[in-house]
Specification:
Blueprint (H helix, E strand, L loop, with lengths): L9 E8 L5 H15 L5 E7 L7 E8 L2 H8 L2 H9 L6 E8 L14 E2 L12 H26 L5 H27 L1 H4 L9
Antiparallel strand pairs: 1-3, 1-4, 2-3, 2-5
Helix pairs in contact: 1-3, 4-5
């Protein structure tokens, strides 16, 4: 059975400073954390990036299907235990960012090596022209529909209020409904894979 998640995926980016000489222990600690997180409903993946071999700054990412699933993980006893198990490593957390909505649709390509627990390659972002086309395919029909409805309901509305009303209506629809829907439907094309009916 497929579970429907409300609110859309959430990506958490954490910057951690790792003391020299503890790299192997930190890799094991991160792997253990990912192993725990992947048992929680809504877990979509995790990994970490080091800008270069000698870097003390590591960037960790994990992603859940919605804010509720993320909160369940972040407030779980398993995560509390895992975080406390890393105290002796001297790892310092310096920044945490949460990305939702439009920020998470098309991630920038990763230029450095990504170490993952499952050794799966990190997919690159689709070309900008494909991103723009996908957004346009969702935006054009909705914009046309709203423009047509407003011309009937408020035919004498001046251009500035008409555009303001249009953008106020379309922004949440695009962010939470249209773009997630169209990117799921066109995931094969964005990833450069054959169409589902040709596989």
């Amino acid at each position: 059975m497929t579970t429907a998640y409300a609110g859309g995926p959430v990506t958490v980016a954490i910057t951690r400073h790792v003391p020299a000489g503890h790299e192997a222990e930190v890799v094991s600690w991160l792997t253990a954390g990912i192993s725990l997180a992947e048992r929680f409903p809504g877990f979509l993946g995790a990994g970490w990036v080091r800008p270069d071999v000698g870097s003390r700054e590591w960037h960790m990412l994990y992603r859940f299907a919605d804010p509720t699933a993320l909160e369940h993980w972040e407030h779980s006893p398993q995560r509390q235990w895992w975080r406390s198990s890393g105290v002796g490593l001297g790892v310092v957390e310096s920044r945490v960012e949460r990305r939702t909505g439009i920020e998470g649709w098309f991630d920038d390509p990763v230029e450095t090596t990504v170490e993952r627990a499952d050794d799966a390659p990190t997919p690159s972002a689709p070309p900008r022209w494909k991103q723009a086309t996908t957004i346009w395919l969702a935006f054009f029909p909705l914009s046309l529909l709203v423009g047509w409805v407003l011309s009937i309901v408020l035919p004498d509305l001046p251009i500035a209020p008409r555009v303001l009303l249009t953008t106020l209506l379309l922004t949440p629809v695009m962010t939470y409904v249209a773009l997630p829907w169209i990117t799921r439907r066109l995931a094969w094309w964005l990833a450069g894979e054959p169409a589902p009916w040709r596989r």
